[in-house]
Amino acid sequence: MKKEIVRSLKMLLLMTILTGIIYPLFITAIGQIFFSDKANGSLYIKDGKVRGSFLLGQNFTDSTYFHSRPSAINYNPIPSGASNLGLTSKLLHEQFNERKSNFLLTNGLDPAKEVSAEMLFASASGVDPHISKQAAYLQVFRIAKARSLNKIQTNKIYKIVDSLTEYPQFGFLGNEAVNVLKLNIKLDLLTAKKRDKK
Amino acid sequence: MDYLLDFIQFSLFLAVLISLSVLLGNFFYNGLNGEKNVLSFFLSKTEKFIYSLLKVDANHEMSWKRYASALLVSNIIGILVLLVMQLTQIYLPLNPQHLPNVEFFLALNTAISFVTNTNWQSYSGEVTLSNFVQMLGLAVQNFISPAVGIAVLLAVVRGIARRKESTIGNYWVDLTRSILYVLLPLSIIVAVLLVSQGVVQSFDSNVAAITIQGETQTIPLGPAASQIAIKQLGTNGGGFFGVNSAFPFENSSPLSNFIQVLSILLIPGALVFTFGRMLGSKKHAWALFGVMLLMFICGVVISYWSEVSSSSTFAANQLMEGKETRFGIFNSVLWSTATTAASNGSVNSMHSSLSPIAGLIVLLNMHLGEIIFGGVGSGLYGMFLFILITVFIAGLMVGRTPEYFGKKIESYEIKWAMIGILLPSIAMLTLTAVGATTQTGLSSSLNKGPHGLSEILYAFSSGAANNGSAFAGLSTNTNFYNIFIGLAMLIGRYGVILPVLAIAGNLVKKNISPVTTGTFATDNLLFAFLLFSIIMIVGALNFFPVLSLGPILEHFLMQYRINF
Question: Would an 8 Å CB–CB cutoff place B212 in contact with chain A?
Fold first, then answer.
């Protein structure tokens, strides 16, 4: 028995060194050398300041921006979380109806219009960076109006949405998804160019 | 919904799973039996060094009782060390967020959880545990606990294959080889692939960002990829971040999702072929793999159908509550089925928000004992118990002494097999009953109505099945749940391991009787069909009553739009 206790402690120590120290350090070294941007959180840095991560959604409420999905944690991921409501939850049904009418109202849409499901349900992570292409299209009219854009510029926004559709990966993996942060960065660039011309 | 796309993804997944399982099954055979393989050049010296340090003679084998006691001692030490680490984390290094010491019962629950390969988490990683505990405590157990599973499986195979002997292998040798030749090399490959997809791997502390709209957002970082690789491969499931593989830093893209969900089933799948080769019957391996694959496909298809058909409950085209846009419905139910078929327990969608019948599938997967591929090692030794019952019942039907690979299956084996199958079930059902009838148990649930019962049932099922996923609406960080789920995890782990080892120890002593025309074949379709039926009957008899009060009732209430 005593022998096995000593062996257990030694084994634990050995494995702590091998799998607890050497292994993660080795992976960190590879990550930092070959994928340093990704290993460090795919950060969006502008003028030397961290403005977010391309992988984490942000809370957009301004009418000049594309809005992200509903979040149970208001996009602050310390800690991350979801609603965990079941489908027979009254609260979930209330939230759903409220989000639907809000979305239709803010975007000036016909009440009979079908809204993509991800805009009506809270995400799993609370920081889902994506929405579907249709959900982005539905917001273009409102954004164009808020930014007082003309027809050509509005069409450009549709093109931006198309070009930023990241998934399905390789054409068949995952669901169609557009990155909201990337969309809004492009939007700001578009308007910045407009200002320069003036 | 793009059904064609989902069909393509599913076919691709199955094709990759099957071919890699066959390939790796052969590779594992060499590594685990100490034969020369592609890695021995790098690792044989490390292996010998470990034996010399532990003062282990690789050729000296153990009886089942010594094997079991070595296993228990090492596991108890593992729990104690992990407990102490958490209770003192503020005094230890690598705690940049200055997180305080963990409260006792939570620490105990977490320690049991990681040593038993459950990885149930009553806490949220970002705000409770220091990098020190996560890396040097939890991550290490993520390697050791699946290795224990493989070790027990190897002991079982020796029990079946050897004739009139008394030993079933050396625990320390089995443990070492499982880590060196199976878990570590695959983890390195998977971790690098994950980093390339955007899964974080850094020792920096959290970054404070000012968002585009000028709000503050804290971006949590950490050495995640290395831990996530072994979390998936070792069917551990404990996440680096609170919402596990739904969090974009933990599972960033559809490709990272594909790799991770594949990693869940890869080693358990491959071990079926290792098992077959060690017993000298490829056809038996295919029969077992076929039964597992069939049950897995049924689970995915039923869950998918449930999600699609339940969407009419809401005026929406699909049910996206608790799901991520990049994964969509199909990848969410593929994961939920895989993670509970194996004893993984990681999630990429919130199981509590799944439609009731998809929720039933994940519960049932755990209730059957996680033998559909199952946990690393534990899936197959759990399946072994069902094989014994099947062979026994088939023997009764034709009136012959049941045999498995020439070994007579007698009352000793059947007694222990029944104990191994029933103990976890009893723990699940009894503790759920306690939770559902006491104020302390009920006060933790978030959802009302049948879903509230499902939450409690899920918690104890997940514990006793060593799964670790949750209907996370239930607030389980209370003394009641921390203590009783801790108990469920211990029963579910050692209440199966000990019977299995006892059977192996008894089988190894027996003679191997020659195959005759009257021998019941265990490598054909009839056997596969019987095995499938026995699993379903046992599972249904044990759990149909409680499932009908939970998800089945909820499904019908949902049809009538009755909400709580």
Answer: yes
In whole angstroms, give the CA distance from residue B529 to residue B275.
Answer: 20
What are the domain boundaries of chain A? 1-40, 54-197
What residues make up the domain containing B483?
Answer: 376-559
The count of domains in chain B is 1
Out of A31, A96, A175, whose CB is closest to B328?
A175
**A-chain residues within 8 Å CB-CB of B189?**
none
- The pLDDT tens digits of the residues spanning B415-427 come to 999 999 999 999 9
Q: Which ipTM score applies to this complex?
A: 0.95
B25 located within any domain: no
Instruction: Tell me if B501 is assigned to some domain.
Output: yes
DSSP characters over A96-145:
HHHHHHHHHHHTT--TT----GGGTS--SSS---EE-HHHHHHHHHHHHH
Q: Is B15 on the interface with A (CB under 8 A)?
A: no
Residue B466 amino acid letter:
N
pLDDT per position as a tens digit, A108-167: 999 989 999 999 999 999 999 999 999 999 999 999 999 999 999 999 999 999 999 999
pLDDT for res A197: 47
Q: Give the model confidence (pLDDT) of B61-78 as tens digits.
A: 999 999 999 999 999 999
Q: How far apart are CA A19 and CA A25, in angstroms?
A: 10
Domain assignment present for residue B544? The answer is yes
For residue B29, pLDDT beyond 50: yes
In a domain, B516, yes or no: yes
> Residue B476 in contact with residue B488, Cβ under 8 Å?
no
H helices of B234-281, where?
254-278
- Report the residue from A58, A166, A185 with minimal CB separation from B217: A58
pLDDT above 60: residue A194: no
Q: How far lies B24's CA from each of A65, B30, B193, B412, in Å?
A: 49, 10, 18, 34
* Half-sphere CA count of B24, side-chain side, radius 13 A: 21
d(CA B51, CA B185): 19
Task: Express each pLDDT in B63-120 by its tens digit.
Answer: 999 999 999 999 999 999 999 999 999 999 888 778 999 999 999 999 999 999 999 9
Judged by phi (left if over 0) then psi (alpha if -120 to 50, else beta), residue B161 lies in alpha
CA angle B72, B77, B79 (to 5 degrees): 95
